[in-house]
Design a protein that fits this description.
With about 240 residues, this protein is of the alpha+beta class. It contains eight helices and eight strands, in the order βββαβααααβββαβαα.
């Protein structure tokens, strides 16, 4: 269970549930691929088909600071409201994820992280793409995919379902190398995802899929009178 301090809307509740998968301690494109395949299999096993996988790379501590400064310089020259301008100084990558048409029209020529990756991050990202293709997993490159949390590095991905309207993300995640160290732990790389249970249920409804529900009891005891209640309890 998780909680949001936000106004509730369809697919975005105050209280919501997630299923998570994490792999900590290794930095390997094959591991990133395996985690994405695991999430893809989860949705396929439920019978879902109207979803898409978006993929991007957010670079690392070597190349992202350079890109961040370049993006900030670009964004400061745009006609944006005060709240968005404040976001430029805190987390400029989030501006790329702004859904408003007036903002997106100004972002057409924005510099993209994928074009500013260092050689190591570029090679890492290409290997993830190659392995996904080899595994038969369909995906689309989205150079503006940034996710909602700024600790993500390198591989970043989202699962979108076309039947959910505005809140279309049913799952997502990415690599977070450096996070463990940042919060006081050892320097361990990691990658993980979360799948939204509530939105997955909405996705199943959108596709008209009804999952079989197991019976909650196999045997039901009915004591015929007070004298048999104790015996029924013991049998149960």
């Amino acid at each position: 269970s998780y909680f949001r301090y936000e106004k509730p809307q369809k697919g975005r509740y105050r209280h919501f549930s997630q299923v998570g998968g994490e792999a900590i301690g290794a930095e390997d494109p094959a591991l990133d691929t395996e985690l994405i395949i695991l999430a893809d299999d989860a949705f396929k096993n439920l019978g879902l088909s109207d979803y898409r996988i978006l993929l991007n790379s957010l670079g690392d501590k070597e190349c992202r600071p350079v890109y961040r400064a370049r993006l900030q310089e670009f964004l400061r020259g745009l006609d944006l409201d005060a709240e968005t301008r404040a976001r430029i100084e805190i987390n400029p990558l989030r501006v790329l994820d702004d859904k408003r048409d007036a903002v997106q029209k100004q972002l057409v020529d924005a510099p993209l992280m994928v074009d500013n990756l260092c050689e190591a991050c570029k090679a890492y990202h290409e290997e993830v793409r190659t392995l996904l293709t080899a595994a038969g997993v369909a995906y689309a490159d989205d150079p503006k995919l940034v996710r909602g949390l700024d600790y993500y590095t390198r591989t970043t991905f989202e699962f979108l379902h076309d039947g959910l309207g505005a809140q279309s993300a049913v799952g997502g995640g990415g690599r977070y190398d450096g996070l463990a160290e940042e919060i006081g732990g050892p320097a361990l790389p990691g990658i993980g995802w979360a799948l939204g249970v509530d939105r997955t249920v909405l996705a199943l409804e959108a596709e008209g899929i009804e999952l079989p529900v197991a019976s909650t009891c196999d045997v039901f005891f009915v004591p015929l009178g007070d004298a048999l209640e104790r015996r029924g309890l013991i049998l149960a």
